[in-house]
Design a protein that fits this description.
With 188 residues, the chain is mainly alpha-helical. It is built from ten helices and no strands. Helix 2 crosses helix 3, helix 5 packs across helix 10 and helix 8 packs across helix 10.
């Protein structure tokens, strides 16, 4: 995912940002925030609503020193709120799954680029819990315990979902490679 930045220089201070400053940051980063929300929701209209909700919620909570991360966090939180019941249902299923303990590192930059370039395929293959965990733990590099707290689910469910994400990404990568080579090869 492309880094969210602002082209406008905003002075960092201990004060609260104005509604105009917040709106400007959201406007400047709308494309990235819409990608994030669409990836998580799978729906353009819901994604747009999540970004608008995140912007509105930020007007009351955002200090100027938080611009760089708060726009993404607020968008993720809005999406999580929208899918909280479904996430809880899926978490109960992941709580029963086993996973390989210990290999749950955040994604590297090449893998993040792969997620961005294959986001439609990945979104279709992953449930909403896995998509949120992919963003939180893989892209945003949050610890699984923090993600579990944010989602209101067990750490085990987040770890099992992240393992499912990593397995799926590996399969999708292999499929993409096979498709690339398969499309170029001729069958006799």
């Amino acid at each position: 995912m492309a880094a969210i930045t602002t082209s406008r220089s905003i002075a960092i201070s201990s004060g609260i940002a104005s509604a105009e400053e917040i709106q400007t940051v959201f406007d400047e980063n709308r494309r990235q925030l819409m990608w994030l929300a669409e990836f998580l929701t799978g729906d353009e209209m819901m994604a747009s609503a999540c970004v608008l909700d995140a912007c509105a919620a930020s007007e009351y909570q955002l200090g100027q020193d938080c611009f760089w991360t708060w726009t993404r966090d607020a968008t993720i939180l809005s999406t999580v709120d929208l899918f909280r019941v479904r996430i809880a249902q899926l978490a109960s299923a992941y709580d029963r799954r086993e996973y390989v303990d210990g290999q749950l590192a955040p994604l590297g930059s090449e893998t993040i680029q792969f997620v961005v370039s294959h986001s439609d395929t990945i979104r279709r293959r992953l449930d909403v819990l896995c998509r949120v965990v992919l963003i939180l733990c893989g892209v945003e590099q949050r610890p699984t315990g923090e993600a579990a707290l944010l989602l209101g689910v067990s750490n085990h469910a987040v770890e099992a979902a992240y393992c499912a994400v990593l397995e799926s990404l590996e399969i999708i990568d292999c499929d993409a490679i096979l498709e690339e080579y398969g499309g170029a090869a001729t069958v006799n």
